[in-house]
Amino acid sequence: MKRLIRGLLLLISFFSVIGLIYYLQIRFFSPGTLSKQPNIRYTNTPTVFIHGYEGSSFSFGPLLRNLERQNVAKRELTIVVDSAGKLQVEGKLRNTHDNPTIMVLFEKDSQSEITQSKWIDRVMRYLEKQGVHSVNLVAHSMGGVSLLRYLLEYANPQTEPVVEKVVTIAAPFNDLEIAEDTEDVFAYELTQNGPSGYTPIYQYFDRSMNRLPQKLRVLNVAGDLKDGSESDGSVSVHSAFSLRYLLEKHTKSYQEYLVTGKSGGHSVITRSLSFQKRLIQFLWQK
């Protein structure tokens, strides 16, 4: 019996060490620069990654690690926003044309999208003070709703970096519950003329579209498990793609991409290889 317990403890210790190593790899930075690839366009424009409700380093950390392994983009900065909106900055932006990426982490990860949008504004103001004058923004789930609210309420090219490209992933733009999951996946079905119904958040966005920054290029991504729900298990494809009718007359370009099958699950879509390929093509490919 003692031998069995000792064996279990050793096994638990082994997997704990493996888990810690993996966490350190996705949370912190690796030295050096990228080996430039011929099909990738390299610039100093940072791409900022924003997680959603109850997100963490695991929301985008694995993706950013893969981008660096493929010599596409370099992890250079992590900005942790505490519950009072104070920024803790890890890393340093360098002028090396390595497609720098920035991971934003909200210390209180269950803040509302209203509060998240304020913290995004604070991050953007900080970046402007560091000499960053243009950015790309990528956001998952509620982070996508927070991002759109930021663009409508706070984005100002006079005091903050100009937003060039936006990627939203599995974002509930026409949901009654923006953050917490409900037992059934809510959906107002999309028709040729738009959603069959409008939630309060969607109505607010629709009224505010004239405030959207000009010349945005947008990639909107949704997931479909192909289990009959027409959703990623949390957000309906109809809700995610309802963004189409908000932006169709207000952006320089708008594209959609659907990740299907198990890879289209809400919490795993950012680790989907097909999504990663589409993201690279949209943001950095020549």
Describe this entry's structure for a reader.
The chain has eight helices and ten strands. It has helices at residues 2-27, 57-69, 113-129, 142-153, 200-208, 237-241, 243-247, 273-283, and strands at residues 47-50, 74-81, 87-91, 100-106, 134-140, 162-169, 190-191, 194-195, 217-224, 253-260. An eight-stranded mixed sheet has the order 3-2-4-1-5-6-9-10, sandwiched between helices. Strands 7-8 form a two-stranded antiparallel ribbon. Helix 3 packs across helix 4.
Question: Which key phrases capture this entry?
Answer:
single chain, 286 residues, alpha/beta, 8-stranded mixed β-sheet, two-stranded antiparallel ribbon, 21% strand
User: For the CA atoms, what is the radius of gyration?
Assistant: 19 Å
**Strand tally, please?**
10
Q: Enumerate the strands of the largest sheet in spatial order, edge to edge or round the barrel.
A: 3-2-4-1-5-6-9-10
State the end-to-end CA separation.
Answer: 62 Å
Question: What is the molecular shape?
Answer: globular
Mean pLDDT: 88
Summed up, the helix count is 8
Beta percentage is: 15-25%
Helix content: 25-40%
Give start-end ranges of low-pLDDT stretches.
13-26
Class of secondary structure makeup? alpha/beta
Largest sheet: 8 strands, mixed
Give the H and E element order.
Answer: HEHEEEHEHEEEHEHHEH
